[in-house]
Amino acid sequence: MPVTEITSEEQLRDLLTSRSAGVSVLNFWASWVDQCAQMNQVFAELSDRYPLQFIQVEAEKFPDVSMGFEIEAAPTFVFVRNGKPVRRVDGAHAAELTAAVEQHSTAAPASASRSAASASSADTPRAPLAPPPQRSEEELNAYLSQLTHRAPVVIFIKGSPDVPRCGFSKQLINLLNGAEIEYDYFDILGDEQVRQGLKKFSDWPTYPQLYIGGELQGGLDIVKELHANGELKELVAASAQ
């Protein structure tokens, strides 16, 4: 089936509630993420081979839809049946996406897995191949304290400053770079235990997060306010003393 590019929330709602739709695969993508271009091509190839409904959603163009499906980074693929998510694939992982599509298809040609598997060799992995060590709660808190204090300014983001993996992280990076503020960073997508544990540690449920002198300042909106009223540079300067 051809890929359907969403132009309105109503269109998406109609597609997902259609009785004949069966399982739908939603591709949440962003034009500024390099990996999305590659995965859009893989997505289109899969749509030619499997009898599912393939739908593309430009994540930042439809923020309410992205929020509803808890999209935190692009690309993200969500499998929907009867209007409810049943599986998701986070990141540019062609082989994992292909396996998920095969599982939810009534017919799965063997050639498709070979095609997407070859594309996966160029994937940018979301996390290290070797998973980070599992830590006890005490060990994790000690590690988080170390991370938040390892530089005067530390940001916890999705991706890296060169390749941010969400729009909010990109905005924070641009703000700090524009203000000529030096910082260290930690990619939370590479360590799920840190990603979840820091929410409790900082009592802050979302990302990105910015720490100055080991103390949480907040997320993007708060950092914008601090920058606008001149407090951000004052806090950075005070932490360096």
Structure notes:
By secondary structure, the protein is α/β, with parallel strands linked by helices. The chain has ten helices and nine strands. It folds into two domains: 119 residues, 3-Layer(aba) Sandwich (Glutaredoxin); 103 residues, Glutaredoxin. Helix 2 runs antiparallel to helix 5, helix 4 packs antiparallel against helix 5 and helix 7 packs parallel to helix 9. The longest helix has 16 residues. The radius of gyration is 20 Å and the shape is elongated. It starts with a strand and ends with a helix. One of its GO terms (biological process) is intracellular iron ion homeostasis. It comes from Thamnocephalis sphaerospora. This is Putative thioredoxin. Keywords: Iron, Iron-sulfur, Metal-binding.
Radius of gyration: 20 Å
Which architecture of the largest domain would the CATH scheme give at its second level?
3-Layer(aba) Sandwich
What form results from the Cα inertia axes? elongated
Question: Number of helical segments?
Answer: 10
> What is the tally of beta strands?
9
CATH fold-level name of the largest domain = Glutaredoxin
The major pleated sheet works out as: 5 strands, mixed
Question: For the record, what CATH class of the largest domain applies?
Answer: Alpha Beta
What spatial order of strands do you see in the largest sheet?
Answer: 1-3-2-4-5
Order of helices and strands: EHEHEHEEHHHEHEHEEHH
Name the CATH homologous superfamily of the largest domain. Glutaredoxin
Class by alpha and beta content: alpha/beta
Q: How far apart are the first and last residues' alpha carbons, in Å?
A: 62 Å
**What percent of the residues sit in helical stretches (DSSP H or I)?**
40-55%
Low-confidence segments: 107-131
Number of domains: 2
Strand proportion, as a percent range, falls in: 15-25%
